[in-house]
Every structure is written in C-alpha cells, then in structure tokens.
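Review form for a predicted model. The reviewer records the input and the model, then writes brief findings.
Reviewer: anonymous (R2)
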Amino acid sequence: MINENRRLWKLILFTIPTFGIYNIVFWFQLTRDLNEMNREEKKLPNYIVVILLSILTLGIYRWVWFFYVADRIQTTGEEFGMRIKPGPGTTLFWYLFGTFIIIGPFLANFFVIHNMNKIAKEYNKNFKANTTVVSNE
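Model under review:
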C-alpha cells in the first residue's frame, strides 16, 4: 500500500524539531512510493543521492529532481486517467521564483504532496481491485 495521507503541515511541523531528519525521511519515502507505482518506468534517484548531488551542485540538482518528481507524478496520473494540475513547469516556477514572496516553495511542496496523494489513492484502489486472495483450503 502506498501512503495516501501525506500532509504539508506535518512536513513543516516535524522537520523543525528533528533538525531536518523528518524532511529526509519524508522525501525518501515519497520517492520510494513513486518509484513503486512506476515499476517499468525510469526510476527517480534515491533521496540520499539527491542530497549528495545537491551539495555538489550547490543546490541546483534538488531543483532538477523536484521537477522530475512533479513530472513523474503527472505522468503517473495520466496513466490512471487523471488530470494532474499544476504541471511540473508551474510547480518548479513556484519553487524557484516563489521564494521571493516566501510562500512559493511551500506552495510547490503542497502541489507535489497533494497530487501524490491523489495518484496514491487511485493506485491503491486499482491495486486492491487487481489483487486476489488465495486461500490454503
């Protein structure tokens, strides 16, 4: 089962007292779940790799990774027949340029989390429908 109850307020609230550890766990699990839903598709890199590459590129890789996450969410939603809005371009725009009005990154994270929850619900519904129980009788 894919987690379909991620919340932005939890991310913000728990990241502060854990000194960022919850943030790492949150995005690691989101990436893992997104890769699980796309078994045959191109996989997103593990979030630990994202952190290391972001350090090496002075944070630029995280922007690229964030775009790919939003794009993969949109692609997965389309595979389930869902329309995912806003798209990865708009989400990245809010993440980058919305920083100047402070709420932009929060809004971009909200879009990604909200859309991930939508496709996770659809995936879980389809997963349950396609799963058969085998008894040992």
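Findings: The radius of gyration is 16 Å.
Further findings: The first helix runs from residue 8 to 15.
Recommendation: see findings above.
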